[in-house]
Input
Amino acid sequence: MALKLKSARVKSENARFHLSEGRRRVAACRVTKLLSLYEDATTKFDASQIQWREPWQIIPPDYASKVEDELYRDMNAGHVLSGRLFAAIGRRKDCDDILFYLGDRPPRFAVVHLTFQREKRAEWPKTSMFDSLAALMEQRILPEAENYAV
Output
C-alpha cells in the first residue's frame, strides 16, 4: 500500500510538472507573440520620413534602447504608456524629451520627458500624445523649431 501511495505521489508530481511545462509553453508563446508585435511596432515606422527640425533629431539605435529601458523604469502601472509597446525614434538635443512611436493605431506618437527616477504619480513622466505624424509636426516639432531658432 505504501508503494501505491508513493507511486501516486510520483504520478501526481509528474502531472504537476507536465502542467507547469504546458504553462511554460503557453507563456513562451505569449512572450514570442509580444516580441513579434514589438518588432512590428519598431520596424513598421521609418523615422527618416519625419522632416526633423532643430532641436529634434533622429535617435541612434544604441541610445534608443537605453531610453526605452529608462521609460520602463520611470513609469508606474498607472502611466498612460504602461502596458503599451513603444519604440524610441527621436529626441530633443537640448533636454530629456524623447519621441516614441506607438504603432499604427492612434495615438501613434508620444513625446515623453524622462525623469530618470521611478515615479509614484501616474502623470509622470510627462507625456504628450499625437494621433498622426501631421499632428506631431504641427503641434510639437515645428513650433519648437521656431522657438529654438529665436
